Amino acid sequence: xxxxxxxxxxxxxxxxxxxxxxxSWSAQGLIDPLPVAGAEGSYFWDYDGNRxxxxxxxxxxxxxxxxxxxxxxxxxxxxxxxxxxAPGFAVDVRSEAARLIAGRTPGDLDKxxxxxxxxxxxxxxxxxxRLHTGRSKVLSAxxxxxxxxxxxxxxxxxxRRWPSDTASAGVVHFWGPYLYRSHFHAETEAQECERALAHxxxxxxxxxxxxxxxxxxxxxxxxxxxxxxPPGYLAGVREICDRxxxxxxxxxxxxxxxxxxxxxxADHFGVVPDLLTFAKGVNSGYxxxxxxxxxxxxxxxxxxxxxxxGLTYSGxxxxxxxxxxTINAMEEEGIVExxxxxxETVLGPGLRELAERHxxxxxxxxFGVFWALDLVKDKATHEPLVPYNAAGEANAPMAxxxxxxxxxxxxxxxxxxxTHVVPPCTITEAEAKEGLSALDAALTVxxxxxxxx
Length: 453
What we know:
The protein has about 450 residues and is an alpha/beta fold.
């Protein structure tokens, strides 16, 4: 699985990268990208012979792990048959991908508009909602990430929005539920749910419900903290949307396709949105693919009225072939069920046990293979281990924690004061325990930056 190391090749790869590749979300002169030689299953490795357990699933997208043979074979077979065709044609593999996705989405979300990724899915969902309602405003939560394109980045709640926020995109942000750091002075999940819904109602009242096209929420907030909504919250948002004629959009780009131990996270909550965005896990990112699942009512808006949107690579045959193979493999191999089982029997108990022993772990939350550890300076006050949006020296405790993970052969997903535990849905019990052991060692480093140290 890990070929012989070849440091000289690694140096050449890195030199070419540094000379010509412009990286996202980065100050180009301050980054040090790791040259990757290969990957398989839950692991990837570099040219120096170091192997890493991928507890990030790259960008929380390799749900079926690296180099799944059935998906690789499907891409190769499709390339030999038909590499590309324009979106306006009917193609077997595109139709089959749409059928398989529609068969797993909740409710009547039976029409699929394909995009190249999650941000484009959000862009088109918002466009559909605005055209369907004739309204302009869209509400989204502060703790959220929806993508880096024009509308999606304005909908995003985290600091990546700030440099691109023109304050003219028709976006209004509100506070979603987060009991551990409640904005509503709640003491129970029931209080948090009730008060968060009341806050949303008040926001809508002051913005004018007749001006609001859509409310978009990540079903489970992803990059901003793996925030699982309290019971009743999503159903409450659904009711509010119905009452005011607002389109309810669920962003399942990160949470969908097995990540939470269900095909879609919405299945945990019994809620059906009007539009659902997806990407990432639909084919584990083997070929870029995303999309919008559309309700019958919204789809009917465009029966006689052209939809003013499209992409050259919408429903690309290679991407659709990889989606078909991915969904079939997930079904045949019980991959969604594995994610559920690993979360219930290994990751959940293991992470809670770590929280009991480490003063740096303030809260554990999640399910399936979608977890977060909220790292703190002080368990009593919930003060984050590093300040919000910390950088440089202020972020040193989290940087030291991440470095300790990598030293122990674990590749973490770190954001602000959190580490997310988001391995592939295919991870085995032994691999999950290996990851927990590496986390245990790394958390001792974080412990050294707490008030208990």
